[in-house]
Amino acid sequence: MPRQSIDHMIVIMVMTMATMLAACHPQPVIVKRSQLLMGTVVSVTSVAPDRERAHRAAAAGLEEIRRLEKLWSTWIPTSEVSQVNAAAGRQAIPVSPETLDLIDRSIHIAALTEGAFNIAVGPAVRAWNISDQGRLPSREELAKIRPLVDLAALRIDRQARRVFLTRAGMALDIGGIGKGYAADLAADVMQRHGALAGVVALSGDIKTFGRMPDGHRFVFGIQHPRREHGVILGRLELENEAVSTAGDYQRYFMQNGIRYHHILDPRTLEPARLARSVTIVAREGIMADGLDTGIFVLGPEKGMALIEALPEVEGVIVDTQGRVWVSSGLRTRLQLDPQVPVVEATK
Ligand code: AMP
Ligand code: MG
Known about the structure:
T-fold, nine-stranded mixed β-sheet, alpha+beta, 35% helix, binds adenosine monophosphate, binds magnesium ion, three-stranded antiparallel β-sheet, 9 helices
């Protein structure tokens, strides 16, 4: 056989083998789906070996968030959190393991943040009504509420899985941590349904697992707290990590030139005044979300000290002057907009 024909045959054989291999190992498929859940836009990105599995995993992720919304939403009167709140001062309410876990982890984050994170803040959240019209509660009104915002008056029976708010008028509000935990649980469900990699994003509360099919990490922008939506402060790649941002620009109303926003200082029951935004990167969404709210209240100095003290926790804080504080583990990872004024590392 002439040399050219042999070469030709080899080329055809190699091509056929490549096609067969590709058929055995097809490129992973990416599916993205969004839905309105937990009062926000929830987007899931699912990477799986085939289209069917990618769709199934994405649908299962969204379904998990819908299930958790039914347990935790204070807008749903039958939710476990609503039942616990309605029974305040009267009786203990049985809850699911997820709800108990959420409350337990919230208490842990309250301890880490010296009480700056406090899920008993419910009556104050109601008084300010910021997620709706927003109103200025009087000093007297806030003074009456203050004894109710007290985690010491929350009783948990872990054996019986029961939760009791011992004072009438108390109310849990898991708005500062629930989305992060929902992202974790939805990501677990997606993996159980065959997703190799993915992202669960409940607006600013994001959990990632794995990498994109091309080997790249998932990339996120941190919203600039004083520019229009979509203008970013910096860019960050994540792998098997969660990121969460708390900001005074997310929900607020203006009155007499003052911004009244949705993150309340449990000591004063007024909007916290030491930061514009806090972004936390952690392994778990529950940690990133709980800490972003608590650290927002603590402010940049105490907040950054806490970030540095915690293993596998990193963060970016924009203070009230617009200066950016970046934790030591993010300094080489975060691509900041060069115009942004950065506070020099103190550590
Ligand atoms: P995030 O966007 O994660 O900071 O959550 C903000 C939400 O957490 C608010 O809308 C309230 O529902 C709730 N919240 C406000 N202040 C606090 C606080 N000090 N501790 C815990 N939750 C809070
Ligand atoms: Mg939070």
